[in-house]
Design goal:
Length: 402
């Protein structure tokens, strides 16, 4: 592994902490490179009240000096504004629980009714927590804020290599866009999606998606959806066929599946390959007769493979389609159990979103960017950005001439 990142902190704790290790020196990085993605993650039709409380802003606490990385681990923090209301129940030090006021504040946040679809039951059993608060605070999707901060660092490095990672929403609930009408101008689709409250590039479908979310809210329910993630400008040869754990598609699927709400990841045609002949699926190759030594001369008639063959990038856009489940905290709770009283009851409800699909795309961008940076540094190395760029550009030149 060429790069690592770790996150720490609880949903209602004082702050979120992020460490990114392995970024080359002399990469220009400022809060302005991070904060826009944090804002994007907080947006979207269907978000809950927490987004009105938090105004996520990154603070660099290590690894960056005078606006540039210095080669050591980058450390960042994001303050949780909501902690002001949780200082007693989320205290990191013991408190006097004989004090009635303190005891009441702690008990008011005690949770023993678990939520189907969440980490509550398995987590409390695994870690021996009678108070499920100890599980849900860390398993909360608030953790994805940290991933987005790390991902913005990765995307800043990728842009130095002219690689962009974008996303847009294909479907929410039963409302979906006709993919055949979209075309392959992914940057334009991304631009259009960014202007939509549900991050869908089609305005009429966006309105239908908003109506579906409003209907779910009225029912006390939630909705999931379908998201497309695209990486543009990726060179040939990231990943490898030599070992199972070096295959780029496996690494991408692993990273994207780690996001809380994700239930499936498809690359290229995905499951549709099972219904077509091989002659329809595989991307036929031809020589570009207008090749002028500044582009890869070998082209594909299609991109059904989603930019990956044999565990390696092909030079075509990497296309991933991700299905996300409806979030498990419902205004009208599902049937469940109380693990303290050992009785049947209804699940715990805490302030919640109705739909996080638009925001999930921003988190998924971060995770795909992580995999790409890891694969790039693995292949090209470089302790400074200039060294990385020298190695990278020499390789591109060889690919162009191959």
């Amino acid at each position: 592994m060429s790069i690592r990142f770790l996150t720490a902190g609880e949903s209602h704790g004082p702050e979120l902490n992020i460490i990114v290790d392995g970024i080359p020196s002399n990469l220009e990085i400022l809060p302005e490179n991070i904060n826009p993605d944090l804002t994007r993650r907080q947006g979207g039709y269907g978000r809950g009240g927490r987004m009105k409380i938090e105004k996520d802003q990154v603070i660099f606490t290590g690894g960056v000096r005078l606006g540039k990385t210095i080669g050591g681990p980058i450390s960042m923090k994001i303050i949780n504004n909501d902690f002001k209301s949780w200082e007693v129940p989320m205290s990191s030090v013991p408190l006097d629980t004989e004090n009635p006021e303190i005891k009441e504040k702690i008990q008011s946040k005690y949770v023993s009714r678990v939520r189907p679809g969440h980490a509550d039951l398995a987590g409390s059993t695994k870690y021996a927590h009678e108070d499920v608060r100890n599980v849900l605070e860390r398993s909360s999707a608030r953790e994805t804020t940290s991933r987005v901060a790390a991902g913005a660092v990765f995307k800043t490095l990728l842009k130095k290599l002219n690689i962009n990672v974008v996303s847009y929403v294909l479907g929410i609930g039963s409302e979906s866009i006709d993919e055949l009408t979209l075309g392959t101008d992914y940057l334009d689709l991304f631009k259009r999606a960014e202007a939509s409250e549900v991050r869908c590039p089609d305005s009429s479908t966006s309105e239908k998606m908003k109506s579906a979310i409003s209907e779910a809210r009225a029912k006390g329910d939630t909705l999931g959806g379908l998201i497309r993630i695209v990486a543009l400008g990726v060179p040939v040869g990231l990943g490898s066929y030599t070992q199972w754990d070096k295959r780029l598609n496996g690494r991408i699927a692993y990273a994207l599946m780690s996001v809380h709400t994700v239930k499936s990841v498809e690359i290229g045609l995905g499951k549709a390959v099972s219904t077509h002949y091989g002659s329809d699926v595989h991307d036929q190759i031809y020589i570009d007769t207008e090749w002028n030594n500044d582009r890869y001369r070998y082209k594909r008639k299609t991109n059904n493979s989603g930019g990956i063959e044999g565990g390696m990038s092909t030079g075509a856009p990497i296309l991933c389609t991700i299905a996300t489940k409806p979030i498990p905290t419902l205004i009208k709770p599902l049937d469940s159990v109380d693990i303290k009283t050992k009785t049947n009851t209804q699940a715990h409800f805490e302030r919640s979103d109705i739909c996080v699909v638009p925001a999930a795309g921003v988190v998924l961008e971060a995770m795909l960017a992580y995999v790409l940076v890891d694969a790039i540094l693995e292949k090209f190395g470089g302790d400074s950005v200039d060294e990385l760029l020298d190695n990278y550009n020499r390789y591109l030149k060889r690919c162009y001439e191959w």
